[in-house]
Amino acid sequence: MKIMNAEFIISAVRPDQYPDDALPEFALAGRSNVGKSSLINRMINRKNLARTSSQPGKTQQLNYYRVNDSVYLVDFPGYGYAKVSKVQRQQFGTMIETFLSDREPLRMVLLIVDIRHAPSKDDILMYDWLKHYEIPVCVVTTKADKVPKSQWPKQVKMIKQELSFHPEDRHVLFSSETGLGREELWDLINEVIEQTNEEAEETEEVSIE
Fold it and tell me: Which controlled-vocabulary keywords does the entry list (predicted)?
C-alpha cells in the first residue's frame, strides 16, 4: 500500500477525545515492549512517527495515527508490565474495555505477539475477551527476523495452540525490521474496510426497501 500521508492525531484517555470523523479504526493490542510502535512505523514507512521506547509501559493512552486520511491505527497501552501501578493497570483496563465495547468505528483488533515466546496470560485473556464479545481479531506474530525461518511454522503453531486460536481468525507473520508481512497486513485491513462498506450498503438498501 502506498502511503500518501500519515500523522499522529491525539493521545486520548476519554471517549470525548476520540476522533469523531467515523473513519475505520484498527487497534493494536499486546504486552509492553512487544513492538507495536515499531510495527506502526513499518506500516506507514516512517521511522519515528510512533515513538518507540526501551522503557516498557510508556504508552499510557490510546494513540491515534491517521493514514491516507482513510483509516486510523490505534496504539493501545501495553499490558503486563510489573512496574506500572495497580491503579494504573485498572485505569488502562477500564479504558480499553470501554473502547472495545462501545467504539463504533472499530473494525478489528490486531493482537501483537512476539513469535519467540509463548503468549502471556494477558495475551490469552485478551484473545478470549475479543472472542467472547465477537470482536474481529488478527493475531500478528512479530519479530520474525529474530527467529530462523525454519522455526517459523513451529513457533506459530505453538502460539496458536496456546491461544486456542479459532480457524476463522486471521494470522500474519511480521517483521518490523525487514518489512515481512507489511503488504499482507495492509491487504487485510483494506479487505475488512471494503467488506464493512459492502455490508453497510446492503443494510441501507434493505432499510430503503
Answer: Cell cycle, Cell division, GTP-binding, Magnesium, Metal-binding, Nucleotide-binding, Septation
